[in-house]
């Protein structure tokens, strides 16, 4: 990946202000949040950035996709912090604040189906308001996939409504007309909104970190409502109807069978999939990404025992069917030599 010409020491001469600055990266499934986070981490210079990654599913794929971050700087939280807010989020932020080596900045990546509002409110209305400063809520939008139906997801709309700026990502995949259409849609929700077009999250860091966009006073109404009825903020998953299916295996897949699964069997209610794949035919570790109609595989090296780890996210998923289809992609059992049958005398 190319390094940006901006360094953080150029960009952020004024750090720190009061409280640890926090940037919340939100945006729908597959829009490019982890890609943006990787860009930030690759260009962070000497700034000590801790990241809090919240993932929907029971396998931490994002952790394995994050590059150039010291492992002790990542806090993980499976599930969805917007649904289990307060305690787990507050605890995770405390763990960051209590680190021996001082952390300069915290970046949070929410799940793609998270409503960012409860997360923002947790920072603005709990004891975290004395310890941190929400700098900006950045919404990553897929310029090619987003449309006025916003994936039939309340959370996707909330991500725009409660963002402080939009990174209009994947412009390489969108036509000029589509980009204008998405911009107009966003403008309509938030007139005058800052919209930054990008490819693979490549944006100058000075435009995304320490920009002081979040105005706590704007949230007084929501904070009162939240204090009155927390549950109203917690039911988006039921509304949006997303679920996940995860699959792991210590046996390799067969490439041809897996391709057949992708092209012939994959149900169209699967919106997003990601994982680490092991193919019988290849010594490489393959990073698999599927977002809407597109998928790709990137080669990497194994740093641990090869295995398959996959998560599928969508609506009304048939878990047993997906697992059966993937089981059918596994290579046949190969008996290790020591278990092979001896030459019998007859
Ligand atoms: N063509 C293209 N692909 C992109 C761009 N940005 C990200 N991608 C790809 O889109 C896929 C999803 O990107 P991620 O960064 O994992 O998306 P995410 O928002 O973190 O996804 P979730 O964690 O599932 O919500 C990956 O295959 C990325 O390589 C872009 O600007 N152009």
Automatic annotation (TrEMBL):
Domain CobW C-terminal residue range list: 242-330
GO MF assignments: hydrolase activity; nucleotide binding
The keyword Phosphoprotein appears for this protein: no
Coiled-coil ranges from the UniProt annotation: none
InterPro entries associated with the record: CobW-likC_sf, CobW-like_C, CobW/HypB/UreG_nucleotide-bd, P-loop_NTPase, Zinc-reg_GTPase_activator
Entry-linked Pfam families: cobW (PF02492), CobW_C (PF07683)
Keywords of the record: Chaperone, Hydrolase, Nucleotide-binding
The protein's name: Putative GTPase, G3E family
Organism of origin: Hyella patelloides LEGE 07179
């Amino acid at each position: 990946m190319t390094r940006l010409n901006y360094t953080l020491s150029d960009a952020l001469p004024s750090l720190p202000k009061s409280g640890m600055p926090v940037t919340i990266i939100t945006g729908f499934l597959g829009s490019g949040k982890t890609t943006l986070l990787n860009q930030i981490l690759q260009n962070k210079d000497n700034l000590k950035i801790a990241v809090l990654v919240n993932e929907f599913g029971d396998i931490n794929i994002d952790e394995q996709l994050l590059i150039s971050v010291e492992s002790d700087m990542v806090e993980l939280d499976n599930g969805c912090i917007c649904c289990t807010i307060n305690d787990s989020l507050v605890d995770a932020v405390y763990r960051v604040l209590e680190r021996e080596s001082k952390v300069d900045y915290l970046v949070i990546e929410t799940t793609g189906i998270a409503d960012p509002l409860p997360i923002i409110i947790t920072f603005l209305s709990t004891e975290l308001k004395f310890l941190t400063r929400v700098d900006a809520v950045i919404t990553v939008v897929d310029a090619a996939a987003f449309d006025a139906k916003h994936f039939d997801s309340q959370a996707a709309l909330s991500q725009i409504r409660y963002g402080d700026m939009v990174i209009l990502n994947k412009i390489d995949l969108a036509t000029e007309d589509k980009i204008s259409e998405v911009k107009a849609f966003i403008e309509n929700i938030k007139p005058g909104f800052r919209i930054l077009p990008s490819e693979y999250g490549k944006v100058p860091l000075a435009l995304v970190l320490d920009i002081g966009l979040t105005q706590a006073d704007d949230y007084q109404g929501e904070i009162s409502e939240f204090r009155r009825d927390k549950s109203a903020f917690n039911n988006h998953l039921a509304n949006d109807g997303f679920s996940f299916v995860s699959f792991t295996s210590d046996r390799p897949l067969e490439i041809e069978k897996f391709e057949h699964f992708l092209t012939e069997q994959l149900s169209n209610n699967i919106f997003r999939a990601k994982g680490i794949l092991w193919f019988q035919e290849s010594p490489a570790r393959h990073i698999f990404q599927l977002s809407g109609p597109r998928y790709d595989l990137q080669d990497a090296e194994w740093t641990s025992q090869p295995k398959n780890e996959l998560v599928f996210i969508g609506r009304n998923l048939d878990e047993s069917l997906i697992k059966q289809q993937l089981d059918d992609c596994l290579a046949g059992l190969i008996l290790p030599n020591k278990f092979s049958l001896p030459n019998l005398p007859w």
